[in-house]
Amino acid sequence: xxxxxxxxxxxxxxxxxxxxxxxxxxxxxxxxxxxxxxxxxxxxxxxxxxxxxxxxxxxxxxxxxxxxxxxxxxxxxxxxxxxxxxxxxxxxxxxxxxxxxxxxxxxxxxxxxxxxxxxxxxxxxxxxxxxxxxxxxxxxxxxxxxxxxxxxxxxxxxxxxxxxxxxxxxxx
Length: 172
Known about the structure:
Elements: H1 2-10, H2 14-21, E1 26-31, E2 34-41, E3 46-50, H3 61-67, E4 72-76, H4 95-106, E5 112-117, H5 119-130, E6 135-141, H6 152-157, H7 162-168
Parallel strand pairs: 3-4, 3-5, 5-6
Antiparallel strand pairs: 1-2, 2-4
Helix pairs in contact: 4-5
């Protein structure tokens, strides 16, 4: 299905896209009805690298070269991105944490660390919250999903005239 979709939509066969964009060490594993594209390099504690929105595992290319010296590094194209392509069930609640649970099971990963950028950060903390027994640590890089409420004092500093008044306040 994905093969014909690529050819129909882009005029390029999926095999050609894979040839152009997969790495020499790229792997594919069947999870939730998708052929998930991933790289699995190095040895040591498992570190999953999760990319942001409109991205792919290529985001981590330079990082992998350094990290693989100390870790088993697994970078993947999340559902709906990269060479993994669309999830057959579309979007649904907990799509990424459910997927990561099945993906780690498929690779027989009992415990891992996660590093996530943007959407990958969202995936990381949601997976850690739902499957804490599988997550040792998480690293969030400009993570999506956390609400930030600006303190009232900072909000007042943005009001017109706040800088002028702030310069005249004397502190003891």
